[in-house]
Design a protein that fits this description.
The chain is an alpha+beta fold. The protein has three domains: 102 residues, conserved putative lor/sdh protein from methanococcus maripaludis s2 fold, CATH 2.40.420; 131 residues, Helix Hairpins (Orthogonal Bundle); 79 residues, Elongation Factor Tu (Ef-tu), domain 3. Helices cover 32% and strands 34% of the residues. It is built from five helices and 23 strands. The strands form four sheets. Strands 1, 16, 17, 18, 21 and 22 form a six-stranded mixed sheet that branches. The chain has a six-stranded antiparallel beta barrel with strand order 3-10-13-12-11-14. Helix 3 runs antiparallel to helix 4. The longest helix is centred in the first third of the chain and has 40 residues. The two termini are 93 Å apart.
Length: 423
Amino acid sequence: MLQIQDDIKESAVKPEQPGTGLRRTGLLALAMAIAAGAIGIGLRWRHEEAVKRWTAAQAIPAVTTATPRPDGSPSKLILPGNVQAWYEAPLFARVSGFLKKWYFDYGATVKAGQVLAEIEAPDLDASLVAAKAKLNSANALVKVKEAELEFAKTTYERWKNSPKGVVSVQETTAKRGDYDTAVARLNAAVADVNAAQGEVDRLEALEGFKKIIAPFDGVVTERNTDVGALINAGSGVGGGTGPVLFREADVHEMRIFVQVPQRMSAEINVGQKATLRLPQFPDKVFDATVATTARAINESARTLLVELHADNPNSILPPGSYAEVRFDLPPEPNLLSIPTSALIFREHGLVVAVVGSDDRIELRKITIGRNLGSRVEVLSGLSPSDRVVVSPPDSLANGDVVQMLAPESPPDGGQAAAKGDAQ
């Protein structure tokens, strides 16, 4: 330090040598350049480190999680149903002929026993006349055979009771044969009468079928014939292949048939209430009650056939309609549900991304139940304490580290709001 001060004093006393100032300026510029370079290198290194830290932070995906919720509130099961009449009967012709007249068109309300139409059957009429004539002839023949039998019986008894020696045994035996023959002929004649009477009865019954009769109180839903049309006996009876002339439905009460998936079949019980909605009545709800079930699962569809009954006092429910049947199901507290957006479809099945305690991802396979709209039931694979990633990125894989965002909070209304309509 003293040496430096001496040098400064000496330089101040000694006159400046030529070129000394230029050298000093160069040294100063060199020092400034070195300092600027050092500062630039330092700033660049700090910038690279910041970029590395930012890139590493950006490489860790940020995810939102939700915990599975117990399914402890009632839910609704909505299924398609078919509305059918309480009774429905296709009406065929039992005799062939021509339609003489019809009295009720489709849409008409009829009572049991009312005549819907009449058929002209001249062939049947002629057959009945011939059968009655044959019956009369058979009856007349019976009277003749009865007279012959009475004569043969009287002759035989007279010869049988005559004194000994007046009539030979051979002659008495012959008269007994005549009597037996007369009995057989009478029996044959009576059999012919019975056969003829049976034919008359059959044809008279068919005569009654010339009138198409309403089998019960109801509504005519079809009329497929008109006056003068050729009618063939139908419904396959006696080989007939004629068409349906009328169709009648009893609509005072309706039957609704629903195919319930096997998974939910145990939750449907006789006496359970349900509601119906029909497309043509968007603002109306109809009440129905489970009347019975098939008590067997359909092997091809894996469904249970359920029959419901619904009152129809104003005949507003038409048979053949499609209905949306809604069942109120009891709560299932042991079931869990998660947001539908948490599901991941991979080649090996359905999985969800669960965040572990070390913030690493575990892709876990699950089994789902009903689709509740915005949520889905989970039958196996999760516990209530799991943190499930909501709307996970497609690139998420096992072992990936993630950063947690705020957990998804349930909407207002608690669990009941989370319950949707089962599809």
